[in-house]
Amino acid sequence: MAGQIPKPVVDSDSKPYWDGLNNHELMIQHCDDCSKHIFYPRLLCPHCFSDQISWTQASGQGKIYSYTVVHRAFGPFADQAPYVVAIVELAEGVRMMTRITGNREDIAIGKPVTVTFEKVDDDLTLPYFKLV
Amino acid sequence: MKSERIAAIVGVAESDLGLVPGKNVLQLQAQAAKAALDDAGFTKDDVDALFTAGNWAWAPNLMLGEYLGIKPKFTDGTNIGGSSFESHVGHALAGIRAGLFDVALITYGSTQRSNPARGAAVPFAPLTEQYERSFGLPMTVGAYALAAMRHMHQYGTTSEQLAEIAVATRKWAMKNEKAMMREPIEIEDVLKSRMIAEPLHLLDCCLVTDGGGAVVVASARAAARAKKRPVWILGHGETHTHNSIANMPDLTMTGARESGRCAFEMAGVTHDEIDVAEIYDSFTITVLLTLEALGFCKPGEGGAFVSGQRTAPGGAFPMNTNGGGLSYTHPGMYGIFLLIEAARQLRGESGERQVPDAKLALVNGTGGVLSSTSTVILGRD
């Protein structure tokens, strides 16, 4: 085990997101002009460049867009392998990187998943997903 | 070919490659630069534009220019990962077309094998890294694994098909005395090699080496007094579509669709005119996705395209004829070596691995996590 899990440098883009996770809420952004959801959070909508952005609580439901089982890991993750890192597409249409917990044999692309909140360190809660 | 003769590659060279513990990145680039200028029949004083990419200094062009004693009137430190050098060639073409300079020196060097930073935990994740780094996706292999898994799901691509690429590339490496890995391998060897990040095995992954390279680009006017016959830059295109893999618009389609289209249009040539292809092979899946994105086959048909050792010596589609990043060398940002090999093929200098009568070459660099692509089409008279 070498080093700590990389700590997010919280900034004014991301603070509502990390605050949400600490409260077990998955917060994402919504563009009030083009009505698309946005993840990760930012100052302008990447679809229409509007600055009329608001925060909303995501449903926490999604499906697996892709995944990999990591067998060779480095640094603070070396002792955790094998583990599953995935890209999940939320019901709101945005994608995010995450981990999938549970039986690896059951994991497949397209399967529905739901968010869980994983306290991986004293001051870091991450959104993981599990099969529905 | 409708493209005008504006600028040409007139000199190419590698530095020492492989495990080079005695040299730093500046020495590797100096060694390659001198050899490439010798190859062109030029001297340092001919160089009026300097291009490099790296993360070994806060402003690599400044340190390199000073170290080499070059005060350029045009400088470009574009860094979009492994495809940077294909972009440097494209930017050199544009600068020469605009009449801004005559001779560009493009260099790269890395000591990543001897001085590995891999595994060293960077404890903080700033800016957009904060949404991903804490999940432990090993970089960059994990990102390419996600793309490979999606391609397999969507199109039924198999590990055997990816292994075809590694096996064919090794056959080319066996013909290149500078290649690091020259023992023959079979598809079974790839499939039985250690799993790194599913579905990618160890032998689906590029080497980790030290090394450097240099390319000299000259205007038509300057090329006329070069020692070697010119390798004309006929077409170029570039793009980047995302930074992190979770933000790749479609895990099965790279930006090479756009950069390739631009390069083919500028060159005025068609796919079936290409005699030899040098395709960035950080991983086997990189090649398969790129062939589809460039339009050498349809989306989803890459597995069939590379099957039956079609890219090996003697195959219908000669590709990665130096042995590639998979078997020849891969010092981090590999793109400059694609250009070096393409130029040698078009000059007929590739010896045992020469593609007979090669007139047109396509080079495609890929950087980051399938993030950037830059395509160059080269041709000889």
Automatic annotation (TrEMBL), chain A:
InterPro entries: ChsH2_C, ChsH2_Znr, NA-bd_OB-fold, Thioester_dehydratase-like. SUPFAM superfamilies: Nucleic acid-binding proteins. This is Zn-ribbon domain-containing OB-fold protein. Gene3D superfamilies: 6.10.30.10. Residues 18-52 form the ChsH2 rubredoxin-like zinc ribbon domain. Residues 55-118 form the ChsH2 C-terminal OB-fold domain.
